[in-house]
Write a structure and sequence with these properties.
The chain is of the alpha+beta class. The chain has one domain: Alpha-Beta Plaits (2-Layer Sandwich). It is built from 3 helices and 6 strands. The strands form 2 sheets. Strands 3, 4, 5 and 6 form a 4-stranded mixed sheet that branches. A two-stranded antiparallel ribbon has the order 1-2. The N and C termini lie far apart (81 Å). About 6% of the residues have low confidence.
């Protein structure tokens, strides 16, 4: 039954055999491409992927769901963004980057790339030490 969901690349004249790609491979490709876009903090994961990450097993496809219906490939991408970035600009850049990367690596076109921003992560700031609050910045002689 899993073979029904595989993507078979066609249009390869003069070659023997077939090329099949499992949709999970597309999820990994898109997940890696998504975290490389400036403004993306991380991908949304599940509890299982968080536990696996603690043991050193990274799920590169987390936060990406690929659906294949006929020749129509749809990607649902769930991301956390850095605080202060332009959400529309980062989302458009994500759509562009994911389409280009998948086309380059698999020669497949994404019909839809739906970006879901699930959170914004603020920059970590240094904790202020109470004794430094009223400290003079200039040294007195």
């Amino acid at each position: 039954m899993a073979e029904d969901t595989n993507i078979i690349l066609t249009g390869r004249d003069g070659l023997d055999g077939t090329i099949e790609i499992v949709p999970e491979v597309l999820e990994v490709i898109l997940g890696i491409a998504a975290v490389s876009v400036d403004g993306v903090y991380q991908m949304r994961g599940s509890l299982a992927s968080s536990i696996n990450a603690l043991f050193g097993r990274v799920n590169r496809g987390k936060g990406v769901a690929v659906q294949v219906e006929d020749d129509h490939i749809t990607a649902e991408v769930y991301v956390y963004l850095d605080y202060g970035v332009s959400v529309p600009k980062v989302a458009l850049k994500l759509q562009e980057t994911l389409r280009e990367q998948l086309l380059y690596m698999t020669d497949l076109d994404l019909a839809e790339v739906n970006i879901h921003v699930v959170g914004v992560v603020p920059e970590k700031t240094e904790k202020v030490k109470p004794e430094d609050l009223f400290k003079d910045t200039e040294e007195t002689e």
